[in-house]
UniProtKB/TrEMBL annotation:
<dbReference type="GO" id="GO:0003735">
    <property type="term" value="F:structural constituent of ribosome"/>
</dbReference>
<comment type="similarity">
    <text>Belongs to the eukaryotic ribosomal protein eL24 family.</text>
</comment>
<dbReference type="InterPro" id="IPR011017">
    <property type="entry name" value="TRASH_dom"/>
</dbReference>
<feature type="compositionally biased region" description="Acidic residues">
    <location>
        <begin position="153"/>
        <end position="162"/>
    </location>
</feature>
<dbReference type="Pfam" id="PF01246">
    <property type="entry name" value="Ribosomal_L24e"/>
</dbReference>
<dbReference type="InterPro" id="IPR038630">
    <property type="entry name" value="L24e/L24_sf"/>
</dbReference>
<comment type="function">
    <text>Involved in the biogenesis of the 60S ribosomal subunit. Ensures the docking of NOG1 to pre-60S particles.</text>
</comment>
<protein>
    <recommendedName>
        <fullName>Probable ribosome biogenesis protein RLP24</fullName>
    </recommendedName>
</protein>
<feature type="region of interest" description="Disordered">
    <location>
        <begin position="153"/>
        <end position="176"/>
    </location>
</feature>
<dbReference type="GO" id="GO:0042273">
    <property type="term" value="P:ribosomal large subunit biogenesis"/>
</dbReference>
<comment type="subunit">
    <text>Associated with nucleolar and cytoplasmic pre-60S particles. At the end of biogenesis it dissociates from cytoplasmic pre-60S particles and is likely to be exchanged for its ribosomal homologue, RPL24.</text>
</comment>
<dbReference type="GO" id="GO:0005730">
    <property type="term" value="C:nucleolus"/>
</dbReference>
<keyword id="KW-0690">Ribosome biogenesis</keyword>
<dbReference type="InterPro" id="IPR023442">
    <property type="entry name" value="Ribosomal_eL24_CS"/>
</dbReference>
<dbReference type="InterPro" id="IPR000988">
    <property type="entry name" value="Ribosomal_eL24-rel_N"/>
</dbReference>
<keyword id="KW-0539">Nucleus</keyword>
<dbReference type="InterPro" id="IPR056366">
    <property type="entry name" value="Ribosomal_eL24"/>
</dbReference>
């Protein structure tokens, strides 16, 4: 079973599906759905249409250069059937698929890392702009120290009048 690729969006076309357009020079264009066929007839550029694979690759959203893609290339030379070759090929396909998924995940993480760095840089700029609104930790500590000193001084003032009152009372009792 041969699985074709859509000329416009690069999605898979299974046997019995899609539309074929044959140009006068015998060039065959295969489309997965009418949406792709209409866009082709309107002479839309797949690299500028945001939902296509071509756009995603051109914009750097998907992995484009990778040795694993060499294995997916279409080969027109027929190969004599061999059970050993078939088993090795199936094993190789599984291994290649694992490698490709890891590389795609790394590519996505690398793309997301740029956004994180940009956000950090924007945060730094915002902090530089509104530095006057921020209070430093040292200022908070010194304020707490000042408040503690004020509380201690205030408590000292309260203790002195009480002590004087007690002395006065003791003195009054002694006179009697």
């Amino acid at each position: 079973m041969r699985i074709e690729r859509c000329f416009f969006c690069s999605s898979t076309i299974y046997p019995g599906h899609g539309i074929q357009f044959v140009r006068n020079d015998c060039k065959i264009f295969k489309f997965c759905r009418s949406k792709c066929h209409r866009a082709f007839k309107k002479k839309k550029n797949p690299r500028k249409t945001r939902w296509t694979k071509a756009f995603r690759k051109a914009a750097g959203k998907e992995l484009t250069v990778d040795p694993a893609f060499e294995f997916e290339k279409r080969r027109n030379t027929p190969v004599k059937y061999s059970r050993e070759l078939w088993e090795k090929t199936v094993d190789a396909i599984k291994r290649i698929d694992e490698i490709k998924q890891k590389r795609e995940a790394q590519h996505i993480l690398k793309r997301l890392q740029k956004g994180v760095e940009d956000r950090k840089q924007m945060d730094r700029k915002q902090i530089q702009k509104s530095m006057h609104m921020l209070k430093s930790p040292a200022a908070k500590l010194s304020r707490k120290g000042q408040q503690l000193m004020e509380i201690e001084e205030h408590s000292d003032y309260e203790e002195e009048p009480e002590a004087m009152m007690m002395e006065a009372e003791v003195g009054d009792e002694g006179e009697e």
